[in-house]
Amino acid sequence: MGKSYGGGCRIIMKNGKLDRINLLKYLMVVLLIIYVVFLVTQEGDNTVSVDTIEKNITKAVKLEGMKKGTTQDLKKYYSLNDYEGISLYIPDDVMSVNEILVIKVKNESQIETVEKAVEIRVNTQEKNFEGYGVEQTKLIHAAIIETRGRYVLLAVSKDADRIDAAFKKSI
Predict the structure, then answer these.
(1) In terms of Cα–Cα distance, which of 146, 145, 147, 125 is closest to 136?
(2) Half-sphere exposure of 130 (CA within 13 A, CB side)
(3) pLDDT tens digits, residue range 77-129?
(4) Is 137 in contact with 115 (CB distance < 8 Å)?
(5) Which runs of consecutive H residues, i.e. helices, occur in the chain?
(6) How far apart are CA 88 and CA 10, in angstroms?
(7) CB of 162 within 8 A of CB of 60?
């Protein structure tokens, strides 16, 4: 009579030895589950203030070619209002496209509206500079639009990657 190892051991053990292929299969499933849990928990910390995110971004990059925007600028360029927190930097020159927008929405239902407004703004800027603003068009095409939890980021800058990294690190 052969040896009996009980329940789950038979799957991993074969003839009293570890079956490496089955062991690797189970290990891959466990790692996949851990990865999915990691992705789900990366929604972002919704308690961080927009001011904190703004400070981290301004530490990471120089805001050359930009000035602090107002709520009127937000309405003018994005047709948005009534959000929990806003940080807007707009071009300080009509031939510049550098722009940073961080919005913390009051609730999840506002995210889609903000994302659409940001996409419309990027498309408008692209049309405005198409044909004669080669450098500006490159920056617009490399724009980063990122949503994390209740935060939305738009970064149009030669330093867009560093702005995005500071944004992600803040949340």
Answers:
(1) 125
(2) 8
(3) 999 988 999 999 999 998 899 999 999 999 989 999 999 999 999 999 999 99
(4) no
(5) 9-12, 20-41, 50-60, 71-78, 111-129, 134-141, 160-170
(6) 61
(7) yes
